[in-house]
């Protein structure tokens, strides 16, 4: 997969290793946010973790919106 390591496609959150559920994706975004905060602000590691957190959080929002549009009242129930 080129570009962001995480993206939403048809209501699914895809990683470079396959699809993951929304709850797992949210948890992973929290992990990346914590990792980003653990490094000096301008370090490459902090930027990488922050970028992955943003991409993942964006994919979760897009997948959730797609699922709601598809009729799921609770997007997590589709997992």
Question: Short description, anyone?
Answer:
54% of the residues lie in helices and 13% in strands.
As a whole number of angstroms, the C-alpha radius of gyration is: 13 Å
Along the chain, the helix and strand elements come as EEEHH
How far is it from the N-terminal to the C-terminal residue, by CA?
22 Å
- Pick out the low-confidence regions: none
Question: How would you sum up this structure, described in words?
Answer:
A hairpin with a 2-residue loop joins strand 1 and strand 2. A 3-stranded antiparallel sheet has the order 1-2-3. It is elongated. The mean pLDDT is 92. It has 79 residues and is an alpha+beta fold. The protein has helices at 22-38, 44-69, and strands spanning 7-9, 12-15, 18-20. It has 2 helices and 3 strands, in the order E-E-E-H-H.
Helix-strand layout with pairing:
Layout: E1 7-9, E2 12-15, E3 18-20, H1 22-38, H2 44-69
Antiparallel strand pairs: 1-2, 2-3
Helix pairs in contact: 1-2
Supply database-style keywords.
2 helices, 79 residues, three-stranded antiparallel β-sheet, alpha+beta, 13% strand
């Amino acid at each position: 997969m080129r570009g962001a390591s995480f993206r939403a496609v048809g209501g699914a959150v895809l990683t470079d290793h396959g699809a993951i559920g929304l709850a797992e994706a949210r948890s992973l975004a929290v992990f990346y946010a914590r990792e980003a905060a653990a490094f000096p602000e301008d370090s490459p590691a902090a930027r990488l973790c922050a970028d992955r957190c943003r991409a993942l959080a964006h994919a979760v929002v897009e997948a959730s919106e797609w699922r709601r549009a598809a009729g799921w009242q609770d997007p997590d129930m589709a997992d």
